[in-house]
Each structure stands twice: as structure tokens, then as C-alpha cells.
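I am writing to request your help with a piece of structural work I have in hand. The matter concerns a single protein, recorded as an amino acid sequence and a row of C-alpha cells. Could you please explain, in whatever detail you think fit, how the C-alpha cells follow from the sequence? Thank you for your consideration; the sequence and its C-alpha cells are set out here:
>
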Amino acid sequence: MKLDRITSHPGRMNGQPCVRNIRLTVRRVIELLATYPDRQELRQEFPELEEEDIQQCLIFASSYLDDRIIALSGNYETVNQ
């Protein structure tokens, strides 16, 4: 799939991949999806973000994951903020 909405320029946002040349990084979009599970609310807060932007961010992020199986220990740590 062509990710034509994901852009990256060394002089913008430290070269991080962004959505359509706006100052909204792919990383931030993924964080926003976790923060706003209701996409309607997400769109109210970020009206410039389109559904296709979200789809391409998810595809871009998932392309960095591979299908390795990683054994997790039985000791889970939590981070308190």
C-alpha cells in the first residue's frame, strides 16, 4: 500500500514521520488513538486529522513490527505517572 499521507523532512519535527506535512507525527497519532478511543471525540479535538490519515499511521507503525515471538517474563512491571 502506498503511504502517500506520511511525510518526513529533516528540517521538520526532527525528521520524524508526519501526517501530510502538518506538525502531527505518526507517533502522536498513535498516542491519540490510545487517549481518545472514541474517534468522534478525537476528530473534535483534531479536526485536521482525517480517517485516511489514521489508517496510514496505523499501517506505518505496524510495518515496524515483525512476527517474532517474544517470551515475556511472569513479572510484569507497571509505570505510575
Summary: Residues 6-62 form a domain with the Arc Repressor Mutant, subunit A fold (CATH 1.10.10.10).
